[in-house]
């Protein structure tokens, strides 16, 4: 099969690396890809948020058998619907299901309606009403821009003043553009976080191995929220009891709720969860693979990813037995100085002599005059496996030290958190 993969980050590099191992896959195209992906796929320079243009390209190309849509924005814009309407097979939720990520107001209402555990909240379209509410609600409080904001539209406010300033930024100054037209004001929850991703065809749910992200830019979870500065798998506190609770109270009710709303979800459903003293609660849904979660999940997948993708599209996921390697995996993100705020691009990357069993997934890289240069905030993900998280993280750090570019920074504490929490 010839497969087109939409996207250009570390996540897409990991997806493409897994597909490249499949005996079913003949040739891979990546729209738009990056310098690392270029080693495995032919790059296609079409704006993937222009869903019509993508549909036309696939039509004209004529030999694309399957398209994998990974990023949130083309999913929310209906790229899968566009491809299906032209008679092509595509992996990813339809537009009416991708809303589970694209609108926090939608997902919060869904959880309320179907009794899916989540933080208490109020939604506001009026700045004045939101400002009044924030004067009396419990503190800390969490503000979330309704729309897509690259994982950055969430503010944890420790004082009333911070909350008022945050509301102004979101609703009046439009710091996150139209994503801030509506704002969800949410109860602050505490506990360890886990990313639980699952394949689903709307009938069967097959969870992947768990992972933990590090969203803040700085060590000890300080600094601004980012797209993710590193991940490890599995979550040390997530045992069988957790898996059962999450499946019964969160995963099944969510997939069935989407069916009941005539928004059947087919693809990867990402449950961002917090283990609170009252059990697991949903912090967010994503309608896709996580980034950088995918970089620690797919290297552990033993089953052919193409076979899983096809089974989801054909609604026969129950027939596939998905197997995972034992052990642990760590991904350390190397970022551009200044990210998630302003940063420079075009810095040459020097790769040292890396261990053979370490993988570097490219995120924001490009090729320029035969050299690999930075082209984004998150530049590379250094991925290592080990018998446990500690062994994997040591290997990832040792190899990260061999890579350099001007302004490069990374967190020093990826994979350290949660190790003392009891597993259950
Ligand atoms: P989100 O984009 O919704 O995943 O939020 C980004 C991060 O903000 C999460 O990973 C949490 O660490 C934090 N966060 C979001 N909602 C809450 C909440 N209600 N209470 C505490 N922390 C939260
Ligand atoms: N790593 C979080 C996300 O993909 O949204």
Structural account:
- By secondary structure, this protein is α+β, with helices and mostly antiparallel strands.
- The chain folds into four domains: 2-94, 3-Layer(aba) Sandwich (Rossmann fold); 120-187, ATP-grasp fold, A domain (Dna Ligase, domain 1, 2-Layer Sandwich); 193-319, D-amino Acid Aminotransferase, Chain A, domain 1; 328-404, Glycinamide Ribonucleotide Synthetase, Chain A, domain 4 (Alpha-Beta Complex).
- Helix content is 28%, strand content 27%.
- The protein contains twelve helices and 24 strands.
- The strands form seven sheets. The protein has a five-stranded parallel sheet, sandwiched between helices. The chain has a five-stranded antiparallel sheet with strand order 12-15-18-23-20.
- A hairpin with a 3-residue loop joins strand 13 (216-218) and strand 14 (222-225).
- Helix 7 runs antiparallel to helix 8.
- The relative contact order is 0.14.
- The model has no long low-confidence stretch (mean pLDDT 96).
- Bound molecules: adenosine monophosphate and glycine.
- Glycine binds at residues 151, 213, 228, 286, 290-291, 293.
